[in-house]
Amino acid sequence: MNDSKQTVHATVLGYPRIGADRELKRAVEAHWSGRLDEAGLEAAAAAIRSQMLDDLASAGLDSVPTGVFSLYDHVLDTVVAVDALAPRHRRESETAAYFAAARGDAEAAPLEMTKWFDTNYHYLVPEIGPGTAFRARPGKALAEYREAVGRGLNARPVLLGPVSFLLLAKASDDAPIGFEPLDRIGDLVPVYAEILSALAEAGAEWVQLDEPALCADRGAVELEAVRTAYERLSSIAELLVTGGYGPFGESLPVLLESGVQGLALDLVRGGVDVDVLESLNVSRETFISAGVVDGRNIWRTDLLAAAAELERLHRLTDRLGVSSSCSLLHVPVDLDAETELPSSLTERLAFARQKLREVVSLAEADAPRLQRPPAPDDWHSETVRARLDALPEDADRRVDYAERVAAQDELPPLPTTTIGSFPQTAELRRARAAHRRGLMIDADYHARMKAEVAAVIAEQEKLGVDVLVHGEPERNDMVQYFAEQLTGFATTAAGWVQSYGSRCVRPPILYADVVRTGPMTVEWTSYAQSLTDKPVKGMLTGPVTILAWSFVRDDQPLADTAEQVALALRDEVADLEAAGTAIIQVDEPALRELLPLRRDGRAAYAAWATRAFRIATSGVKPETAIHTHLCYSEFGDVIDAIAELDADVTSIEASRSKMEVLADLDRADYRRGVGPGVWDIHSPRVPSVEEMAASLRLAVAAVDPRRIWVNPDCGLKTRRYEEVRPALANMVEAARLVRSELA
Ligand code: GLN
Ligand code: ZN
Prior knowledge:
The chain is built from 26 helices and 22 strands. The protein has 743 residues and is α/β, with parallel strands linked by helices. The chain folds into two domains: 9-369, TIM Barrel, CATH 3.20.20; 414-742, TIM Barrel. The longest helix is centred in the N-terminal third of the chain and has 22 residues, at 38-59. Residues 419-421, 478, 539, 587, 589, 629, 631, 714-715, 717 line the site of glutamine.
């Protein structure tokens, strides 16, 4: 992208598209509720795009990415760009079709949604079959390119690459067994060629094709698809291919041989690619963009270290660039919106706007090369570190499961329970908002939450549930609730990042050693227990999930930070046990999310992640039962880790997969208690007694009935009481029915 040896080309690979003040959320939600028509929605979208271009333009980048705005999801945008909408989503209005695919409507179920690589962003899964008729629809890409060019910017259209698009897709329901979306690469590439031609004709010299799927292990068939796709496409425009989620690895030589003109390396996670490049005979004409500014975390870049990386790459190419490691989609827009954070923290942070400046200053040879200041002394807890050092190697081990089960309280066969949360009613949310704004004093808020706990206990007593929960009304969020009480964490005022569609989250910042200053949950659980003779489960969020849903310090290995969080939880578990809690559930819904994309990192990950969980939970007596909850049924590569958590009972999602997951668990040698969900809580539908009994019969046929628990797929916070009451009544009845059949 640059012609002289001296200059380094500054750019970023993508930018937040929710607006600095979550304008996207307000606009699309107003549209969905009928308060904003299509023209109004488009005007709001244009204003957000304009703000994005303002940011990119004023930073002084050498080129700016375009086409990175999205009304909902960039994978769905790609579905539209290649005209691959499923027939059931086609509508008169293109906007209606788009949102039908995203969210479903009266006629059709939406596309499935799943996590984007190892992040907490969720994308919509394209459905591709042998009959999907691809067609080029470059309208959005062209329009957004022209918007930027119209402002005199050097614009670079960005598209999700064809190989990743197909690897992220699933086979449509009508596809024959054995069909893989990637089988269609030969039909898709010509359509991409048409889109690239249209962009080139409009004046685009460079086009960025994102191939994040190449950051995972890829075999011969996939590499062949890369080769054929890029041999063809690199003849149409100058291509900048990005990965963004780790090293390209085995894909790197294939991309180079295929003739792509530029590669954007993720040098935050994929630094090994530089070693590979050094060993290959790379043409000095190849544009190499060094992704040294972390697109996934919020710490300031160590500019001195980054400059050294650039030096190393300059020895390999005459055309060097500097950029973010991936799109800035995963970081909040502007640090300047955070006025409450201590300056010792803000001086170490960079959100999207600040990262633009870092990229530009790295490209300017004479800019100062700032290093991070050393962390303040009080960010360090000698006590926590000494306690962790003193933990014996086997501190994460409990006595044998058999011995534990024998010691634990006897429950009826097929015990019934729930996953933890009860409906977060509008009234509860109003109380929380009033409390946050200072309109409700602590004592009133507290009393309101206690009343809710009492109501939730009464509901469960009436329904006849065996193991009760307090309902989690006091928790705004299962991670933030703990982050607010532990030192070492900060929460932001406006640090929103897109989770999916209009849903944004505000991850806490874990910046220092983690110290628990007192019990965090005991009061609520004990209060709930005081109201009933039935056991009440204590409810905690596990160390891996707390890390996964926070921005975590990058100055020490994740494993070390996980141990600190685990130690805080271990103390909480001990306090719960001392207060008389006989069952403690530690949720780890993000266990799979942090799993490394490449196999060679997985064993080490599983080792530290499960050790952290065990440190949190193994300090209890054999009599105390430890439960865990994982939110999904497709365990894939974490299945072996589930046994390694060493929990007495694991609840999982199972209703949609018809209990198939039990056989998978069995094959993975998991032989402890299991609560396969019998009620799909993602849907407002109330399952019948017969339906849940049928699921339970499958379960007791698959594994020893003494191991089976009866529960919904997940927490109930998003459901309404009108659904929860009848569904739980049916669940309890189904358990009774199958119990009587067993007897
Ligand atoms: N205990 C939490 C709840 O019931 C678990 C949530 C989750 O699995 N994501 O809401
Ligand atoms: Zn869940």
